[in-house]
Amino acid sequence: MGLGFGLKDSSYTKAALVVVAVVAALSCRAVEVPTPVVESREVRDDLGRTVKVPVKIERVISLAPSITEMIFAIGAGEKLVGVTTYCNYPSETAAIEKVGDTQTPNIEKIVALRPQIVFVSTASQLEAFMNTLAEQGISVYVTNPKTLDEVLGNLEELGDLFGRGGEISPMIISLAGRASGVRHQSNYDLDQVIPAKRKPRVFVQISKEPLFTIGRDSFLTEIVESAGGISTTSDIATAYPKVSKETALALNPDVILLSDSEDNSGPSDVFENSPAVKNNRVFKINADIISRPGPRLVDALEEIARDLRPTN
Amino acid sequence: MLAAALLVAISFGSERLSFFDLSNSERAILFDIRMPRVFLGACVGASLAAAGAALQALLRNPLAEPYLLGVSNGAALGTMIAFVFFEQFVFARPLFAFAGAGLATFTVYQMARSRAGMNVERLVLSGVIVTTFLSSIIVLLTSLLDAARLRGFTFWLLGDLSQATMFGFYLTLVSAILGTIVLTSQARSLNLMMIGERDAMDFGVEVARVRMIVFGIASLLVGTAVAASGSVGYVGLIVPHLVRLAIGSDNRLVVPLSTISGAIFVVLADTIARTVIAPRELPVGAITALIGAPMFIYLLRRN
After folding, report:
1. Using the beta-carbon criterion (under 8 Å), do A207 and B148 form an inter-chain contact?
2. DSSP letters of A138-156?
3. What is the ipTM of this complex?
4. Quick check: A210 and B160 CB within 8 A?
């Protein structure tokens, strides 16, 4: 506070000044410029909540890299005024204000950026947090796709939300077409369903030490199956379980997919004698792409399908 | 009993093995994965229990425990610093863990000591303060590491035997055996010091020397154990206590028997951790804390 103008005489003066300043600061709120009336409508998000959104959306914040990618994919990237520190794709995200990471967003910064909608990927991003935003008149939209089809559905919903439904339908058709092409090619052989015993058994290694993999609830289980493989860990509960090394060794996979990162650059030692390592069928996949249920999942699907294709 | 515990631990795991007709992969599971882990668990349990027993005798306090005194956290911080800055040297981790454990022990001891001697509350409080202080530095370090590396550490900090290496096993084995021998050799002095340091001096015990040896060896035991498996809590509390209940408080017996019982305890706790939600796993520290924390409350109330 700017008390630097020679008021050294008494502490009462200082106290009085502080009071005046505080009162002034508080009363500022009351005389705030009234926000212009924005035309709004009601939509439903992935949790089935009714969300009030402006008809014309100008300022939004994304709290998940997958959502950021989707918003860019539908051509609404310039509406993003805030993203997380994890949002690194496309390259335009570098120029957008960062509002913390997905788990610990900075609420003050979010409010200061005056967004109309904040997009979050799960409700786990704290109820209290959502209430605070609601009090500030900021809508919270939850989008939480769990399959590739849901990602495409989400792109459609977002397109509609941003009033770009018409422009983006060719893109969605193209993505859907690529996905169904891969599914068909990888799972059917001359229009015969490929029997399970001829499909490669896949282990997806998320991290080497400790050994994390994908489980029943991960969207990657579906991706592996669409790509023509069988996930060896599809019956383990939760999305990203830490799996016992004994079990991993017994799984004996034909193919190992590594989520590519510095400390996950090779398969765990327990796979030493697995067909995957013996036949040199260990593949790295960009960790960002396979950890985000976004539009690039189709790229991942195509890449994994190529990796799984029989070598002979 | 230790043999029986080891046998039980080796028999059970997330995979069911047909022991009389082992296939190649079953042999690999048994010899390359399960047995190293079980033996490392035994060494870690032995180290922590021996350190706990000796610290309790030295500080004349049944609540002195490596985990609660912040010694384990000191070792954990040391290990992390070694991991961040000297990743390529295998010896850096146990060495830094030893140094961290030693520093934490020394700090807690200096804080807890007063002219009137050392009382329970002061010791436990000093331990809490050092533990939380070290935890905050650990949190700071983990936020500097990237997300993939961090995941490993959060498991490891809770005490996780799944990252067992042969190097860690040999090191903890050697230090557990040597440590127990040295601590047992000081047991007679510790017995006398339990009556009172002044009385012990009258009997010709070099109190300061005994104290240095016990602190040093306890730090070594905790350091090597933590470097190999993270902070497995409460082992040094539960085990010596049960041993004393069974055979009295003669340290010549309490220290070596704690070593053996500590091994049994951690091996069995880890068997639970490995099997209860198989094929997923829990960190063993979660199991030991689940048993240990209520026991701590019980001991605190009885004191």
Report:
1. yes
2. -EEEE----SHHHHHHHHH
3. 0.74
4. yes
